[in-house]
């Protein structure tokens, strides 16, 4: 049995599925494939069963209905962990993630990485056939996420990934946010905070040629608002702790000085800092909800 599993979630991908599975098996014949289908009305699930019957490397997980990408991946992750796969990969069914580049991610895993992201925005990465508005939205969103969370990863929302099983075992999958597609960023964020080695490799992302995209701009506001909350909460905690330490130092100085009321003012610093950051969070959320970028929903 292979030690590497490629999870491909599907919903109405009957045209794309045979193409992407064929490309995966041609490019990396040493991997297994798990198709996670959410009871697609177009017959994708039946097509997946046909592929599984023809290829022993292909497996199918049928789910009762469409519950979102996170739910599909969560089910796929658990399926793979239960069967002792060492490396678990994510790949879209629509061809936007080139199976021919999967070896780039797996090579980095072999070199010691715990989580590898196929990145559109590192040097050498590329996006093809995307409308300018969608490209700008994606780039802006990823820059905002990096700034909010203080991380160096340039493509936190990318869905082309390879990771060691230990990453998934070390993260509470049930706690991942279901808002928009932000779970991709949250998974990477939690992995970094847990001390895992997270790396990016350049890939070429090409927009789908067949079928209809399930993604529209409406997901962005919910996703970025969620990121704002994480970043503010994290920074508020750090700032409050720093203010607390400064308070202790100032109290020490106060004990040896006669400055009136300084102690009372110092004790108010942590609360004031947290309140300030909280107000910034509300302002950021208001700006996102009322900006043209996020107000233009399809």
Distance between the ends: 45 Å
Helix content: 40-55%
Number of strands: 9
Q: Over all CA atoms, what is the radius of gyration?
A: 23 Å
What series of H and E elements makes up the topology?
EHEHEHEHEEHEHHEEHHHH
Shape: globular
| Share of β-strand residues | 5-15%
* CATH hierarchy: architecture of the largest domain: Alpha-Beta Complex
So, the CATH homologous superfamily of the largest domain?
Answer: Spore Coat Polysaccharide Biosynthesis Protein SpsA, Chain A
In the CATH hierarchy, what is the class of the largest domain? Alpha Beta
Q: How are the strands ordered across the major sheet?
A: 3-2-1-4-7-5-8
Predict the CATH topology of the largest domain.
Spore Coat Polysaccharide Biosynthesis Protein SpsA, Chain A
Q: What can you tell me about this protein's structure?
A:
The chain has 298 residues and is α/β, with parallel strands linked by helices. The protein has 2 domains: 4-212, Spore Coat Polysaccharide Biosynthesis Protein SpsA, Chain A (Alpha-Beta Complex); 225-295. The chain has 11 helices and 9 strands. It has helices spanning 16-27, 44-54, 69-82, 102-110, 132-149, 165-169, 183-193, 218-255, 262-267, 269-290, 292-295, and strands at 4-10, 32-37, 58-62, 87-90, 115-119, 126-128, 161-164, 198-202, 204-206. It has a 7-stranded mixed beta sheet with strand order 3-2-1-4-7-5-8, sandwiched between helices. Strands 6-9 form a two-stranded parallel ribbon. The two termini are 45 Å apart.
